[in-house]
Amino acid sequence: MRILDLTRELYNAALQERRDAWRKAGKSVTVYDQMRLLGEVKAARPEYQGVYAQVLQETLKRLDRAFQGFFSRVKRGEKAGYPRFRGRGWWDSFTFPQVWREGKWVGPGKPLGNGKIKIPGVGHVRIKQHRPLEGVPKTLTIKRSAGCWYAVYVCEVSFQPLPPSDKAVGIDLGLSHFVATSDGETFAPPKAYRKAEVKLARTQQALSRKKRGSNRYKKLKMRLARQHQKIANRRRDFHHKLARNLVNRYGTIVHEDLNTAGLARTRLSKSVQDAGWAQFLAILSAKAASAGRRVVAVPPHGTSQICPQCGRVQKKELSERIHACECGCVLDRDVAAAKVILALGLDGAFGGGG
Ligand SMILES: [Zn+2]
Question: I need a surface site. Which of 47, 79, 204, 280 has the fewest CB within 10 A?
Fold first, then answer.
């Protein structure tokens, strides 16, 4: 897209100017110096007149942030890479920095109600909205990824406490159910998501049979990237909805403090990464914080081996799906674990291993 090329060129030119000024004259150029010259750029290169002014300013600020990051890393004595020129493959977005002010849309991105949004310099663009916007939209970034275009809104979510609730729940994050709760509910990722995964695996296999670098290889590779993206979108969507669901119903949510990095080194690696627990927990914490609800993490050791009714410890193989204890307690294995997690979070009832 044209705006992508123009902003990338501007970024590179501004970087060149900063380098030259420093090398030749020992002078540093600020982002404000560079913004003042945008008029000259437009006079010399009329194609820049078609680009929204704030998008150009934001491009210069992006470079400025790259320099700020570089300087502060140097200051802290860390390894610091000097800001780089961006080639075609390393520039995939531009940003409208202000889309909303005092309760009104003042910039681009306003939904037109017919499934389209208006983007200056581009026109009316059809969008597929994955979630309603929450909070106040601040910026809009147009991003290209795996051959598709995305409109990403960054919103400021104000603190909107829900009415207090003394209901508490424990959640067990697992592989067979994504989440099992101490109230006996289980949540699995949507079917469409699993179907997409099967498709992905097939494409991956087909790709391995093509000759590297051939046209068919490239085409399949692009398809693979698109399928990956689609799955990531669906997964994030599922995480948001599930987190919203739990935060709305419970005042306290207890989960295991997962050492995902540790698990990822084991043979469970693929499924663990796919399950995306870390992403889900981050979303859950954010939603809980803005609703005034509590999320508690408890140490993960042995929660699946303890009986939630009597506290007895019994070893279970990973393949045993049912918890059945001598005391008469029979539960889905993950629901039993969720009950133990809840108890640990509330008062450490099983602290020390029961
Ligand atoms: Zn028991």
Answer: 79
**312 CA to middle of ligand 1, Å?**
6
Q: Give the residues across from 311 on adjacent strands.
A: none
Yes or no: say if 279 and 239 are a contact pair by the CB < 8 Å rule: yes
Phi-psi map region of 203: left, alpha, beta (phi>0 left; psi -120 to 50 alpha): alpha
Q: Let me know: does 240 contact 328? Beta carbons within 8 Å.
A: no
- What separation in Å is there between the alpha carbon of 330 and the centre of ligand 1? 8
164-202 residue pLDDT tens: 899 999 999 887 788 999 999 999 877 777 788 888 889
**Could you read off the pLDDT of 148-165 as tens digits, one per residue?**
788 888 888 777 788 889
CA gyration radius, the chain: 26
Cβ-count burial of 269 within 10 angstroms (0-12 exposed, 13-18 middle, 19+ buried)?
exposed
Q: Exposure pattern of 78-115 as b/e (b: 16+ CB <10 Å)?
A: eeeeebeebeeeebbebbbbebbeeeeeebbbbeeeee
Cβ atoms 294, 332 nearer than 8 A: no
Contact 259, 173 (CB under 8 A): no
Q: Distance between CA atoms of 230 and 233, rounded to whole angstroms? A: 5
Catalytic residue annotation: 172, 256, 334
- Which tens digits make up the pLDDT trace of 227-265? 888 888 888 889 999 999 999 999 999 998 876 555 554
Between the CA of 306 and the centroid of ligand 1 the distance, in Å, is 8
